[in-house]
Amino acid sequence: MTEPAHLTATRAGYDALADRYGELSQAALDGAPLDRALLSAFAEMVGADHADPLVLDVGSGPGTIAAHLAGLGLRARGIDLSPAMVSRARRDHPGIRFDVGDMSALGLGDAAAAGLVAWYSLIHVPTGRRQEVIDEFHRVLRPGGHVLLAFQVGEDTLHLDEAFGHPVSLDFHRLRVDDVAALLVRSGFEPTARLVRAPDPTGAAAKIPQGFLLARKPAQGSSVRRATRDGGGGADQGEV
Q: Is 187 exposed, middle or buried (0-12, 13-18, 19+ CB in 10 A)?
């Protein structure tokens, strides 16, 4: 089977950028107190609800977020499409497991994880494939598990042919918060919090608002409102 073009391009782009991106990722987190506060709240919720707080960092890149979550007391594991990024993460964070993998096929059993973070990785998934990715997130999370998504807010797509002196072909899809929340609901998640951070004049993405969504997979036996796949936003009551 031929690999989807967006996977090939994204893998090649981040393979080329692995070393430089690792440095920028840590600096960005160090300079973002609100991001760290959200990650801390997420870690506290996961740890309170699950005795074995295994958390997946999906699109883990150089391992910055996985390492931060591990420092907050979670058992973190990273998965990334780029072998070069995984190699960098393994080198910089030898105590954490990192694997090469695709967001739409995570290679874990059903209900394997207590939490999942996709930190600016969903932005590389084309519109027609986002639902299957969110469905995969739902599959690998335990009942009562938490998900945290971070993404750039907007309705356009930024395409880069060059980054840090390297030729690449990378698409960055800006996403509407309501659209991402609707994907979560269709998969069976219950959104629990949303935040849009205003553009930061001192940051690298100064002109772009940043969106964050927290959601929970309902515990077994609880009722959740699910949007129909073909009803354009309709909903009915179902048991999970």
A: buried
Q: Note the pLDDT tens digit of each residue in 9-64.
A: 889 788 888 888 877 888 889 989 999 999 999 999 999 999 999 999 999 999 99
Distance CA 41, CA 28 (A): 19
Place of tokens 């609800």: 49
pLDDT at 227: 40
Q: In angstroms, rounded to a whole number, what is the distance separating the alpha carbons of residues 109 and 210?
A: 31
- Residue 124, CA atoms < 13 Å, CB-side half-sphere: 27
Class of domain 5-239: alpha beta
Q: Is 80 helix (H, G, I), strand (E, B) or coil?
A: strand
Parse the chain into domains and list their residue ranges.
5-239
SS3 219: coil
Quote the tokens at residue 218.
């309902």
Query: Is beta strand 223-227 parallel, antiparallel or unpaired with respect to 235-239?
Result: antiparallel
Contact in structure between 194 and 214 (CB atoms under 8 Å) = yes
Q: Which two tokens stand for residue 238?
A: 């179902």
Confidence of residue 236 (pLDDT cuts 50, 70, 90): very low
CB 210 within 8 A of CB 122: no
pTM, two decimal places = 0.88
Quote the CA–CA distance of 43 and 75 in Å, as a whole number. Answer: 10
